[in-house]
From TrEMBL:
GO terms for molecular function: transaminase activity. Coiled coil: none annotated. Belongs to the DegT/DnrJ/EryC1 family. InterPro entries: DegT/StrS_aminotransferase, PyrdxlP-dep_Trfase, PyrdxlP-dep_Trfase_major. This is DegT/DnrJ/EryC1/StrS family aminotransferase. It holds the Pfam family DegT_DnrJ_EryC1. Gene3D superfamilies: Type I PLP-dependent aspartate aminotransferase-like (Major domain) (3.40.640.10). Transmembrane segments: none annotated. It comes from the Bacteria. The lineage of its organism: Bacteria, Pseudomonadati, Bacteroidota, Cytophagia, Cytophagales. It comes from Belliella filtrata.
Amino acid sequence: MIPVTQPFLPPRIEYEEYLEGIWQRNWLTNDGELVRELETKLKEILQVSNMLFVANGTLALQLAIKALGIKGEVLTTPFSYVATTSSIVWEGCTPIFVDILPDYTIDPKLIEEAITPKTSAILATHVYGIPCQVEEIQRIADKHNLKVIYDGAHAFGVKVKGKSIFEYGDISTCSFHATKLYQTIEGGAVFTKDKSLFKKLGYLRNFGHDGFDRFNGVGINAKNSEFHAAMGLANLKYLEEIMLKRKDQFMFYHKRLSHLAVSLILLENLTSFNYSYFPIQFQSEEELLKVKAKLEDNKIGSRRYFYPSLNKLDYVAGQVPLAESISKRVLCIPLFHALTYPDQQFICDLLTESLK
Ligand SMILES: Cc1ncc(COP(=O)(O)O)c(C=O)c1O
């Protein structure tokens, strides 16, 4: 079986070298040496002002909402992973879905139309690593005094106008889940340029602790461990190789599939991209299901990222025609470091054959 994704693992010996230090220090979690080292190195690699390593990308979103004191309605994208919506609901806010553009990101024009006196924030996703229209969104947020959070779970390494994408918005988040381009097993991060927000996020991540016996507000346990940081550190050595290979693999598919009657990510619109997913948009759901079945018959995994459109979850409401239509017609095909070119060619042949 060829899976749709597979984690990149560093050579085991290199991970074990970090374990040696963990055993020597006998320090497993709580702002350990490796967590700090990972934060320092990632800050430099990503060129961000501030970042905190957290337990996962979902808690990162929840911390962001909490830190900004967001209440009421949050304008958000329906085309994302469920965590984007569930975090809003989990924090006691109401997601208001705003339809997307053909490039899969939230439509700024529709954001402005959806603003009501109850709106307090915008939570948008750089889905598949495709940047949202960050400048236009900030203009709208400034005009209407709204906070902006970006779910950058897919956007590791992406830049906008030469700046890390994580520097945009009040707070940005990322996921380092095992299936992501860069992984720490479970893990994620929050990023903000604002020093006082950064301090607040630090309290929130660690139960509100301000020293051993003092507390600064209500907090949660969103810390991550030395073992997860060790995986992240061991993977850093391979980051460049992973990103270059991913681009080659992406282009391999792109070249061989662009003549088919499907829509692929429009690379000409992107000045910086991380090639993290390969979504194919079919003309109909029937076509998608036919291709998916053909791939399955040949032991090839694929995933309907992202289906259903999040407004269809049974705990929310709203109508977003384009997102609903696109989410029924998008399929992601295998893309991971160890995927071979012959396997990619086989996948392309199957797709070509079933779309004949
Ligand atoms: C868009 C998006 N947001 C949030 C998350 C949640 O991240 P995590 O799995 O690290 O909690 C994911 C994870 O897959 C995601 O794809």
